[in-house]
Amino acid sequence: MLADLSPLIAATTQWLTRAYPAGGGALDGALLEAQARQAVTVAARLRYPTPMDAALVGVAGPGGTARLDWITGFDEDLTPDEYAWRTWVDEVVASWAACLLADPELARTAVAALTDSSHTAGSPAVFRRLLTPDALDRRAAALLRHPDLLAPVATLHHAGLLDTLERGQALTA
Questions:
Q1: For residue 125, with 0-12 CB atoms within 10 Å meaning exposed, 13-18 middle and 19 or more buried, which class applies?
Q2: Of 8, 4, 34, 1, whose CA–CA distance to 145 is shortest?
Q3: What single string gives the DSSP state of each residue in 58-103?
Q4: What is the CA angle 172-162-144, rounded to 5?
Q5: Which three-class secondary structure state does DSSP give residue 86?
Q6: Exposure letters 6-16 (e unless 16+ CB within 10 A, then b)
Q7: What is the end-to-end Cα distance of the chain in Å, rounded?
Q8: How far is the C-alpha of 59 from the C-alpha of 77, rounded, in Å?
Q9: pLDDT tens digits, 99-151
Q10: Cα-Cα-Cα-Cα dihedral of 35, 98, 95, 130, to 10°?
Q11: Could you give the CA distance from residue 113 to residue 127 in angstroms, rounded to a whole number?
């Protein structure tokens, strides 16, 4: 099922890492991407828990970055290649990932929900950089994990994430 969501996960991860970039060199960039990808993967698995959900989003498309770009102040002319990957960004998944990155307890709850799910398995070890970032991870993702900076994106769909986790089941598409 994860393979069906891979374009969505890759594009949403790329959007997050561009909106909240690392300040350092290549190592910081790689650590930032790993944390963003783990948060996006958890969010995508919660949002699209079944193969049917993943197939439906593959057919209908996830929606793109228009509102996310507006909220974060991105206003540039895009080349066709730049525009193409942005169409695969899922606003809800990006918002949920922002929630997880800003709130370690919420991230632990979300990963635990995946572990308990019959549709998707999640191991806390697989999500180590999301759940227990070390000093290098925190430095690399200073912007990506800053609750105040993430708030405009995180608050978009925060209530939906809490509802999903409270019910113990993920939303369907």
A1: exposed
A2: 34
A3: HHH--B-SHHHHHHHT------HHHHHHHTT-BHHHHHHHHHHHH-
A4: 100
A5: helix
A6: ebbbebbbbbb
A7: 14
A8: 27
A9: 999 999 999 999 999 986 644 455 678 999 999 999 999 999 999 999 999 99
A10: 40
A11: 13
Give the max Cα distance, the chain: 44
* Residue 1 DSSP symbol: -
pLDDT tens for residues 85-103?
A: 999 999 999 999 999 999 9
Contacts of 104 (CB under 8 A, 6+ apart): 131
**How far apart (Å, rounded) are the C-alpha atoms in residues 146 and 87?**
26
Give the pair of three-digit tokens for residue 59. Answer: 């057919």
Distance CA 133, CA 172 (A): 30
Residues 6+ apart with CB under 8 A from 83: none
Distance CA 164, CA 120 (A): 14
Match 């609750």 to its residue by tokens. 147
Q: Which has the closest alpha carbon to 101: 30, 14, 34, 11? A: 34
Write the DSSP assignment of 92-127 as a string of letters. Answer: HHHHHHHHHHH-HHHHHHHHHHHHH-SS----TTTT
- Beta-bridge partner residues of 63: 90
Instruction: Give the type of residue at 68.
Output: L
